[in-house]
């Protein structure tokens, strides 16, 4: 039963602390996405990777957010320093995209990390 | 600016009746549209999609309609069931992989 896993599921931290969220994409998927869900904006794309290379991180506040894929089985999203306005649910998703473009599979989402910054 | 809009934050429908969820988009470069369903404390799951070369796609109780000239799509659920109660997100893409999502519509199916 292939699925995207995310850790931690919940995180409560104080303003100014570093937060790291981890994602294990589905084995064989070549594209990984990070989204943030807020009431006002719905699901916002923060960044995404193809074959571990960052393709687009324009949705991310660059001064405090960073996203990496150290290897094909791990994607990380880091916030340093965290602020109360970062409180949201962060989702990771993975998918398989042909080299010529177009999905083979749709995006599969993990269960999310609920972040609360006090 | 919201390129994908779901103007109804919530919808309540009686069991057995039709649920119609609407979505509007502004970017004419979008050529592939998807609906995702989300239960509380879970990630969104793919429901149904439609390419811009079609105006209708059906999968069981779920049908998506696309009106390109109006930049509008809708999801019909017939008949609605209590298990359909969830948040539904409309999404669109024009670059084959990067999705732009709407803000979601919470559907409540009542007995």
Structure keywords:
heterodimer, A: 118 residues, mainly beta, 7-stranded mixed sheet, 4-stranded antiparallel sheet, 0% helix, globular, B: 111 residues, 6-stranded mixed sheet, 11 strands
How does this structure look, described?
The complex is a heterodimer of chains A (118) and B (111). Chain A is an all-beta fold and 118 residues long. Helices cover 0% and strands 53% of the residues of chain A. Chain A is built from no helices and eleven strands. Chain A has strands spanning 5-7, 10-13, 19-24, 31-38, 42-50, 53-56, 65-71, 74-79, 88-95, 108-109, 113-117. The termini of chain A are far apart. Chain B contains no helices and eleven strands. Chain B has strands spanning 4-5, 10-14, 19-25, 32-38, 45-51, 56-59, 62-67, 72-77, 86-93, 100-101, 105-110. In chain B, strands 2, 4, 5, 9, 10 and 11 form a six-stranded mixed sheet that branches. In chain B, strands 1-3-8-7-6 form a five-stranded antiparallel sheet, with no helix packed on it. In chain B, a hairpin with a 6-residue loop joins β9 (86-93) and β10 (100-101). Chain B is globular and about 40 Å long. The mean pLDDT of chain B is 93. Classes of the chains: A mainly beta (118), B mainly beta (111). The interface between A and B is medium-sized, with 28 and 22 residues.
């Amino acid at each position: 039963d292939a699925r995207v896993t995310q850790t931690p599921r919940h995180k409560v931290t104080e303003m100014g602390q570093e937060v790291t969220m981890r994602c294990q994409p589905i084995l064989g998927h070549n594209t990984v996405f990070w989204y943030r869900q807020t009431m006002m904006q719905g699901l916002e794309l923060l960044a995404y990777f193809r074959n571990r290379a960052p393709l687009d991180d324009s949705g991310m506040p660059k001064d405090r957010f960073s996203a990496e894929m150290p290897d094909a089985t791990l994607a990380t999203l880091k916030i340093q320093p965290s602020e109360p306005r970062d409180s949201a649910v962060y989702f990771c998703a993975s998918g398989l995209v042909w080299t010529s473009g177009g999905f083979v599979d749709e995006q599969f989402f993990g269960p999310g990390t609920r972040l609360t910054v006090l | 600016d919201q390129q994908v809009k779901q103007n109804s934050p919530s919808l309540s429908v009686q069991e057995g009746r039709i649920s119609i969820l609407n979505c509007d988009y502004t970017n004419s470069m979008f050529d592939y549209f998807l609906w995702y369903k989300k239960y509380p404390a879970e990630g969104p799951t793919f429901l149904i999609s439609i390419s811009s070369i079609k105006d209708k796609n059906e999968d069981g109780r779920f049908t998506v309609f696309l009106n390109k000239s109006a930049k509008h799509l809708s999801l019909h659920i017939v008949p609605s069931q209590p298990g359909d109660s969830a948040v539904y997100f409309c999404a669109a893409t024009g670059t084959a992989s990067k999705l732009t999502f709407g803000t979601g519509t919470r559907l409540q199916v009542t007995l």
